[in-house]
Amino acid sequence: MRGLIICTAAAASVLLGACTKDIDYNLKDIKPQLIVNSQMTVGDTLHLVYLAVSKSDRVERIKSGSVKCYVNGVLVADGKLDNRDDDLFIKEDLHIYGHYYRDEHHKDVYTAGPNAAGKTNQTRYSFKAGFKPGDVVRIEAEADDGVYKAYSEVVVPKAPEFSITDTLRQKDQYGDNVYRIRVKGKDITGEDNFYRILSGCSWIDKKIRYAHKDEDARTWEETRGYRFIRLDKGNDPILNDGAPVEDIDLAGASENTFRVFSDRQFSDGTFNIGFSVNAKEIFIGPHGLLNYDRLESESIFNVAIHGITKDEYYYLKALSIYDYLDGDTTLTEPVSFPNNVEGGIGLVSISTESVATIKFKRTYYDLRYWLDN
């Protein structure tokens, strides 16, 4: 995974009041391990697995490797070495790639520091496979002619049913136009569930131009692509671990950068979540001189809720805290990240997506410049 950090705690001197204690730490005791990272989504046509080797003081690229995917005990795909450019095919904003992990077998190894597994020291494999909720997906990986072997098994989670129930336009505390959006959904009963909420928008422009009064209008449509939109969670207790946004604690627990939540925040089988989106994000008007007389712009706004695994939930929660602390754990406990790779280290997870859509329309008349109002 891009930005993956595996690092070690160096020998430390801890000053507590007037007492100083030296902690001996031997980096040679830590054995190299295979790093396996993959965050997959049901419905994607291509799945990615990232491999590297974690050593005592650095992360190295593997010399050779292999990846196999099993679904319910049946081999369904062999991963192929993939050197394509990320931007060509990865939905980057939908998948938060791995950053940091804790090795449960070495208590002094923790996730902080500069040693990152980036593009230069990781190897990516891709494969095609179909998953559905309830499937048991097993990823097996080997590296360096079998010197390193690891695997992970994940049960594919379900996605909740939900709908968008309200879209109120109002001014925020800074005077900007925002849409307060509320979604209502149904929890999956009888089990512990973990979710993540995201949003995005696409635009279709219908352009109308007149040569002069007596001519029929000439029209054409253009699609302006798709963009992911940041959610302002406001004071919603479900997205703030039950706390108001102004009550963020020292560890940043209610910061919740990645907008994850669990059904522990609601007990009646339903959830009702509110957040806001700046109107500028939904209505992206034309810029500069226009060569048409009227623009009818349609914004298609998507809210997606992913059913995610328990490990991914706690990973993203930990990453929120780590980001909130800006990597400085001097005065706090080391941030612990889940590891669900047997024989190695890393995170393998799968999410299942549910989407609700609403449309916004806006018409611009006789414009030469777009006015933001």
Describe the structure using short key phrases.
disordered C terminus, 5% helix, ten-stranded mixed sheet, 373 residues, 2 helices, mainly beta, 44% strand, four-stranded antiparallel sheet, single chain, disordered N terminus
Secondary-structure-based class equals mainly beta
How many angstroms does the end-to-end distance come to? 41 Å
Element-by-element helix/strand order: EEEEEEEEEEEEEEEEEEEHEHE
Alpha carbon gyration radius: 24 Å
Task: Explain the overall architecture.
This protein has 373 residues and is mainly beta. 5% of the residues lie in helices and 44% in strands. It contains two helices and 21 strands. Strands 4, 5, 6, 9, 11, 16, 17, 18, 20 and 21 form a ten-stranded mixed beta sheet that branches. Strands 8-7-12-13 form a four-stranded antiparallel beta sheet, with no helix packed on it. A three-stranded antiparallel beta sheet has the order 14-15-19. It is globular and about 80 Å long. The relative contact order is 0.20. The N terminus and C terminus are likely disordered.
Record the SSE blueprint.
Elements (H helix, E strand, L loop, with lengths): L3 E2 L6 E5 L2 E5 L9 E9 L5 E8 L4 E2 L4 E7 L2 E5 L1 E2 L34 E2 L5 E5 L8 E8 L4 E8 L5 E11 L5 E10 L7 E16 L8 E11 L31 E3 L7 E9 H4 L11 E15 L1 H15 L19 E22 L8
Parallel strand pairs: 4-21
Antiparallel strand pairs: 1-10, 2-3, 4-5, 5-6, 5-11, 7-8, 7-12, 9-11, 12-13, 14-15, 15-19, 16-17, 16-18, 16-20, 20-21
